[in-house]
Amino acid sequence: MCYEGGFSHDPDKLTYGVDMKKIRWCGILQRIALAYFVVALIEISTKTAQAKDLLPGRFSIFKLYCWHWLVGACVLIVYLALIYGVYVPDWHFTVNNRDSADYGKILTVNCGVRGKLDPPCNTVGYIDREVLGINHMYAHPAWKRSKSHASRLRHWVVMGLALLVLGITLHFTDAIPLNKQLYTFSYVCVTSGAAALVFSAFYVLVDIGNVKFMFLPLEWIGMNAMLVYVMAAEGIFAAFINGWYYDDPHNTLVFARPRFDQIY
């Protein structure tokens, strides 16, 4: 975890190696791994106290996993209390980018707020700075290197079109056919390119056109990505969608998918 969370300089530079003064302890994926580790410890420690059979009743699932629900509720309460209750004061940082016109200057980020979720003033960044120090943060966060709308769209659209055309060309020339099961290179190119174009379209509508009310459900999905992933992986979404049919119980989107896969 420490190794993956750190960084190395370019091999062709004399400063090659890991600077322990600026190493980034635990990146995003490593923090997710730590969360899984804690959950695994809870599962192991409460397994003996867990009932073997699911008792009948409406709330039996809560009784069976009472310790899991209790720990989860405690974690959620602490998380929400920290996110929305901790006061984030103004903070300073020194510009270390030699190519910047502000190199060497000490700049101030004006916060003085509670419960703000933007990158400069959220509680997570504040706790990281207080515990690990500012040298252990990313040197070029997104809020410092933001560009204009046109430059962002140009980058995303050009890259998306290039990947999409490359993937389609590889497929129809029989060089590398599309295959989801094997995650072939053409499949990766097509899906990545299509995702870039769709993302660009959403960016134009939401961030530039300010049409946000239509996409509030997608915003909720993005803010709860892990929950949505687990619900989809465990078949909860499929079970919900399968409960809606037209004229015949087998005429649902879930039953229609195998027929669609056979056609295409």
From TrEMBL:
Key word Signal present: no
UniProt keyword list: Membrane, Transmembrane, Transmembrane helix
Transmembrane segments: 28-46, 66-88, 153-173, 185-206, 227-246
Keyword Ligase in annotation: no
PANTHER family noted in UniProt: HEPARAN-ALPHA-GLUCOSAMINIDE N-ACETYLTRANSFERASE-LIKE PROTEIN (DUF1624), LD22376P
Record protein name field: Heparan-alpha-glucosaminide N-acetyltransferase catalytic domain-containing protein
Organism: Rhododendron griersonianum
